Amino acid sequence: MPGSSLKATTNAINKVLGKFAGVVKALENNDNGSWSLRQDTISFNTSNERDGVFAVYPFPINSSISKSINFFFSVSLILKANEDIESLNIRILKGDEYSVGDGNIIPTELLLRIEWSNETSSEALTEHAQPHWHIHPYKSNEVEPIFKPDIKKIFDELVASEAQNITSLISDVPNEGAHPNVNTPMYKFHLPMIAEWDKDSKVAINKKLDDKNLEKWLRECLNYTKNQLEFILKKMN
Questions:
Q1: Model confidence over 136-165: pLDDT tens digits?
Q2: What is the DSSP string of 135-158?
Q3: d(CA 213, CA 85)
Q4: Of 53, 97, 151, 159, which is most buried by a Cβ count within 10 Å?
């Protein structure tokens, strides 16, 4: 059975992103089997410790309910040598208005990661649903505006110091394994996106991504994410 093709895969993504973000041929070949968003007139640069600097596009939120919060998204694609899809990663970010940018790099906070991997390792097949969500912690807009940037920096340092003290206290308590880690990385939790637990199948949480189901899934996924973000913003208002 023939697998995915490079042309069909990139065309599907470009078609969806063209309609969603208004960019023609959004994907850029990184020459190492990976693809990401190219620089465009609407794009910005942001960065993180893991990936360095990368391009993001504005996430189209209804301006009447956005509360002046800027949302962005990135897309990255990795293909196997035979042009089958290895993984697709979408990041939803919000502008971090309490941090200072560096040159043309805007500060952002990661809110969501949407991932679909065709990894066939035993861990991927038995432990992680495909596709899935990751939810990341972020700063609250409802609280932080009371701090000026210089005061906020002092506040953050105090919070970090107290967290370290709590961790040290817990580590000194006998039978420390019975105590939860205050820094439990819940962002590593893989939230199933299309699990079919009602079916009698051991692979009910794992689907394969190819150029046949990519276009429809990506379109509906981005639209659903947009609707949910706007729903939250309406509740905040």
A1: 887 655 444 444 555 556 656 666 666 566
A2: E-----TTTGGGS-HHHHHHHHHH
A3: 12
A4: 97
User: Could you tell me the pTM of the whole model?
Assistant: 0.77
Residue 114's CB: how many other CB atoms inside 10 A? 22
SS3 69: coil
Torsion of CA 162, 167, 171, 177, to 10 degrees: 150
Q: What six digits make up the tokens of 50?
A: 């893991």
**Tens digit of each residue's pLDDT (9 = 90 or more) over 162-208:** 656 655 544 554 544 444 445 677 888 888 898 888 877 666 678 89
pLDDT score, position 147: 47
User: H helices of the chain, where?
Assistant: 6-21, 122-127, 149-172, 214-236
| Spatial distance between the Cα atoms of 190 and 135, rounded to a whole number of angstroms | 9
